[in-house]
Design a protein that fits this description.
By secondary structure, the chain is of the alpha/beta class. Strands 1-4-3-2-5-6 form a six-stranded parallel β-sheet, sandwiched between helices. Strands 7-8-9 form a three-stranded antiparallel β-sheet. The longest helix is centred in the middle third of the chain and has 16 residues. Bound molecules: adenosine monophosphate. The site of adenosine monophosphate (AMP) has 18 residues, from strand 2, helix 2 and strand 5.
Length: about 280
């Protein structure tokens, strides 16, 4: 497995590759969710690149950029064992040299949900993703459904800016009790870890209600809110039942719907979602 730490090393290596390249973008501290994307890329592409970069521009000033978990040696071993061909591990100075002054500003897809809760987040995401696409030039890039809005923003960017890459979105990988795998789960103490199951339980409740015929989206949001509010360690950022395409909040449930939520468990902010097709 090739480990590339600079843009010049990356470009030299990339030039030599003739076959199809799949790309998995990550912020490291890898888990089975990330590795499922690597495996899918390996199954579909001749070469699989993984990037590990904790991107400062997608964190707000009061967010956890400094505390975000990092363990590069462990990540590299996991990627080697999974069979990635190359890992791009740039430093922040490599990605944002002094004077860098151009950004990608996503449109409406980025305004709601995570975009409303985290101003500037998707501008940081879209900018770094476009840079990584330009550097690595993959034919396919793999994203997780766990970050459904991120995948939607990237799909729209690629379509609007004619970026020659195919976007694949893979299912959310969960722990045995339903908690979506996330690097941030490592912040949770045992009581918080237990409380964190409330996210998945509330998504399951929404699924049951809607599959049982409930069509009033506000009732679904209310029932989810009640369930989460009964958990003393949980504080809701948002609970959403939205059109899966536009991300507009629904009054009446039509499909495909994206049921999503952001909840703080203690000081840890977690997100999750299900799509009802
Ligand atoms: P992150 O390192 O959290 O920025 O995630 C990198 C990529 O892995 C993104 O496309 C995420 O959507 C995806 N991902 C993160 N967690 C999961 C999960 N539990 N299941 C599937 N994909 C995931």
């Amino acid at each position: 497995m090739k480990v590339l730490r600079s843009i010049s090393a990356l470009r030299d290596y990339r030039k030599q590759l003739a076959g199809s390249v799949g790309l998995v973008l990550t912020m490291g501290f890898l888990h089975e969710g990330h590795l499922s994307l690597v495996r899918r890329s390996k199954a579909e592409c001749e070469y699989t690149f993984v990037s590990i970069f904790v991107n400062p521009t997608q964190f707000g000033p009061d967010e956890d950029f400094g505390a975000y978990p990092r363990d590069t040696n462990r990540d590299l071993k996991l990627l080697e064992n999974t069979g990635a061909d190359a890992v791009f591990l740039p430093g922040a100075g490599e990605m944002y040299p002094p004077g860098a002054d151009t950004v990608v500003v996503p449109g409406k897809t980025a305004h709601r949900l995570e975009g409303a809760a985290r101003p500037g987040h998707f501008r940081g995401v879209a900018t770094v993703v476009l840079k990584l696409f330009n550097l690595i030039q993959p034919q396919r890039a793999y994203f997780g459904q766990k970050d459904a809005q991120q995948a939607a923003v990237i799909r729209k960017m690629v379509a609007d800016l004619d970026v020659p890459v195919e976007i694949a979105v893979m299912p959310t990988v969960r722990e045995g009790d339903g908690l979506a795998m996330s690097s941030r789960n490592t912040y949770l103490n045992p009581a918080e870890r237990e409380a964190a199951t409330v996210l998945y339980r509330s998504l399951k409740l929404a699924e049951e209600l809607i599959n049982g015929g409930e069509r009033d989206a506000e009732i679904v949001r209310q029932r989810m809110t009640e369930l989460i509010s009964a958990e003393p360690l949980a504080h809701i950022d948002y609970v959403s039942v939205a059109d899966a395409g536009s991300l507009d909040e629904l009054a009446f449930v039509i499909r495909p719907a994206l049921v999503s939520l952001a909840v703080r468990i203690g000081r840890t902010r977690l997100i999750d979602n299900v799509t009802l097709t």
